[in-house]
Amino acid sequence: MLDDFMTRATLAGIGVAFAAAPLGCFVVWRRMAYFGDATAHAAILGVALSLTFQMSIFAGALAVALLMALTVTLLSGRGYAMDTLLGVLAHSALAFGLVAVSFLSRVRIDLMAYLFGDILAVSRTDLAVIWCGAALVVALIGWRWSQLLTATLNEELAYASGYDPKREQLILTLSLAVTVAVAIKVVGVLLIAALLIIPAAAARSLARSPESMALIAAAIGAVSSVAGLRAAYVFDTPAGPSIVCVAAILFACFSMLGWKGHKR
Q1: Using one digit for the tens of pLDDT, what is the confidence trace for 98-152?
Q2: Residues 22, 218: contact at Cβ < 8 Å?
Q3: At what angle do helices 145-153 and 124-143 cross, to 10 degrees?
Q4: 154: Cα separation from own chain's centroid
Q5: Largest CA distance in the chain
């Protein structure tokens, strides 16, 4: 069954959707959309370093994405507004990554595959990495769910409950880096933030609790992956952007339904 490239692509998309769903909810709740963007943009530098030192793309992207996330965490609150700091780091990392790639004259590289994903080229090894990464993220978020939720709602309440908000932030940072690394093959570094945010934002108007929002976001992400791949096959469009387009359409539909229900 896994010899079929469409089957592997579908399973890869669903795996990334499951990893991105709970994490995307926290990104939406904490208003850290640009944080995800900065971490994702840094991954292209990780790709360049991986190719230079002939190491795993996943390992290089994970290392640099984690380094970027930790850098943002350390530099926050030092006189710069968060959006300014993230803007500088995100675009600087992307620029340095693209320049580094240009020096790889001996390595044949399809840059578009890393920028916008190449889900149809997912191998069995890629699929194993994606699902192992997704399982790690889901397990990590599930293990710390109550603590993460409390720290998101109110830092003072977290301290009163015996939780360290900085530690919870670090767990989110680690999860985000893993998700970025496994999603590169599916939607590319430029669209990872969209796959994090759009399903979670779409689920917000339908959910009645934080837990249901994470589950609905996972379902929306999975449906977007399957429908996006089908649309890409039928209309001969890029698979990664097609997945994000389907997610955006679902967001628009659910937002309209939520707005009409609120109006009533």
Answers
A1: 888 777 766 666 677 777 888 888 888 889 999 999 999 999 999 999 999 998 8
A2: yes
A3: 60
A4: 24
A5: 63
Which of 97, 181, 167, 105 is closest to 136 using CA atoms? 181
- DSSP of 208-261: SSHHHHHHHHHHHHHHHHHHHHHHHHHHT--HHHHHHHHHHHHHHHHHHHHHHH
114 C-beta neighbours (distance < 10 Å), count: 24
CB neighbour list of residue 35: distance below 8 Å, 6 or more residues apart: 27, 69, 72, 86, 176
Q: d(Cα 207, Cα 257) in Å, to the nearest integer?
A: 12
pTM: 0.87
Angle, alpha carbons 17-20-26 (nearest 5°): 145
Contact of 218 with 17, CB cutoff 8 Å: yes
Compute CA distances 95 → 54, 58, 177, 234, whole Å: 21, 20, 19, 34
Token look-up 């995800």 returns: 36
Dihedral angle of Cα 219, 221, 225, 226, to the nearest 10 degrees: 10
8 Å CB contact between 199 and 221: yes
The residue ranges of DSSP E strands in the chain, in sequence order, are none
Sign for the CA dihedral angle at 148, 154, 158, 164 comes to: positive
CA atoms within 13 A on the CB side of 169: 17
What confidence tens digit (pLDDT) does each residue in 4-32 have? 888 999 999 999 999 998 899 998 888 77
CB–CB of 239/189 below 8 Å?
no
| Tokens, residue 125 | 């090894």
